[in-house]
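Re: [ENG-882] Designed sequences occasionally contain unexpected residues at chain ends

Forwarding the minimal case from QA. Structure tokens:
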């Protein structure tokens, strides 16, 4: 080697130096990008949002369209297509979204919601109002869809299961007041409204101030709420007396006059509403929805049964419910209409000599009766779990009417989701 290359110099060992900074791929957000993409490319072809949109396309939206005042050839700002609003709320309900403000944000940021909007801008006022203003249409569309499936033989009403959910009301415990306190609130609110009116009369320019207008509006709304609470006090006293309590201890909420304190599933007592769902047992589709402020389910058996029979014009041979619905009047009402009650017997109404009650107890002692009753848990308990998973633990609206609208959105969303999974289309309008 020495003859071939000569004397090679010795290479010194490199000195150990301190470690340098790591080499990284860093974010550069000022770099321009040119993208050509349509809203239709934001989501996959089999995305749930597309399936909901297609299903809503088979809804009867004519009542919503007929209510729009803006028409071609006449003045007026164009209104949002009801199909967009219905699709948004159905998809949002399945996604566990129950706030107009949250939905407004999603319509700006989330790909699926942006696709449903299709470039139409929406604010939370429009979204919130649409959610609660169309309870009658929601109920009619639910009945129309179920009626179409009945006519096609997809489902039947041979057995219907009923159950209730306690849903937290948008009212605090501290909003419940007794009669003397409500009378004080009414007096104070009236004095405040009179004071603001006097200020406007003395200085008309004050009414043009936003602050003054907001104060006057808030005072008027406060007066309206406390007057409504005071007007509901006689009914509260009757209920208190019926439950063997002191009528003077009756209380009504100044926030939501229709809310009642109920025992919740966790054993606590909070302001709530009683949401009733009825579902057929073949596919588990909700066929009727009801909302009340009754703390017990016993009084809800006959009204919901009558609602189903009246809506679909046919009897229900088997009516399934849990032990909380057992009452002599309810069982007798079902028997008179040709429906057999399937409710757990045990020691309930053991000494009652009513023929309808005796027939019910004898029915539940048979294996055939128990086999029919087992469909209750498989159907309505599953429906309850679905709407709970979708966020129906409480409502951010007030009153029976608006709470009923929210309950109907959940029922319709459940049915749409179920039919999508089974590949069954929603019945088209005639």
């Amino acid at each position: 080697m020495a003859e071939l290359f000569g004397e090679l110099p010795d290479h010194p060992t490199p000195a150990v130096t301190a470690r340098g900074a790591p080499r990284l791929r860093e974010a550069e957000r000022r770099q321009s990008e040119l993208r050509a993409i349509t809203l239709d490319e934001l989501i996959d072809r089999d995305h749930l949002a597309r399936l909901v949109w297609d299903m809503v396309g088979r809804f009867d939206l004519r009542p919503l369209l007929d209510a729009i005042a803006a028409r071609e050839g006449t003045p007026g700002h164009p209104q949002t297509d009801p199909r967009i609003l219905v699709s948004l709320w159905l998809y949002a309900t399945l996604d566990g979204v129950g706030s107009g403000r949250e939905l407004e944000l999603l319509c700006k940021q989330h790909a699926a919601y942006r696709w449903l909007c299709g470039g139409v801008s929406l604010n939370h006022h429009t979204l919130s109002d649409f959610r609660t203003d169309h309870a009658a249409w929601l109920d009619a569309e639910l009945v129309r869809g179920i009626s179409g499936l009945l006519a096609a033989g997809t489902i039947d009403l041979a057995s219907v299961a009923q159950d209730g959910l306690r849903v937290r009301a948008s009212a605090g415990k501290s909003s419940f007041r007794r009669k003397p306190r409500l009378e004080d609130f009414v007096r104070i609110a009236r004095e405040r409204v009179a004071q603001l009116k006097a200020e406007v009369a003395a200085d008309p320019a004050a009414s043009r101030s936003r602050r003054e207008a907001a104060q006057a509006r808030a005072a008027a709304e406060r007066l309206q709420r406390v007057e409504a609470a005071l007007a509901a006090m006689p009914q509260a006293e009757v209920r208190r007396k019926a439950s063997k309590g002191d009528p003077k201890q009756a209380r009504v909420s100044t926030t939501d006059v229709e809310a009642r304190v109920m025992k919740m599933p966790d054993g606590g007592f909070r302001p709530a509403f009683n949401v009733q769902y009825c579902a057929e047992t073949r596919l588990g589709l909700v066929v009727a929805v009801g909302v009340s402020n009754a703390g017990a389910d016993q009084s809800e058996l006959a009204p919901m049964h009558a609602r189903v029979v009246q809506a679909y014009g046919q009897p229900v041979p088997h009516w399934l419910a849990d032990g909380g619905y057992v009452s002599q009047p309810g069982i007798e009402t079902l028997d008179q209409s040709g429906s057999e009650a399937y409710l757990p017997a045990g020691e309930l109404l053991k000494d009652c000599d009513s023929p309808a009650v005796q027939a019910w107890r004898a029915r539940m002692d048979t294996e055939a009766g128990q086999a029919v009753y087992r469909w209750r848990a498989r159907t309505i308990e599953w429906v309850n779990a679905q709407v709970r998973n979708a966020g129906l633990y409480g409502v951010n609206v007030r009153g029976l009417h608006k709470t009923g609208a929210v309950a109907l959105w959940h029922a319709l969303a459940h049915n749409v989701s179920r039919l999508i999974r089974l590949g069954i289309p929603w019945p088209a309008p005639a």
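QA comment: On inspection the terminal residues look reasonable. DSSP finds 16 helices and eight strands in the chain. Proposing we downgrade this to a documentation issue.
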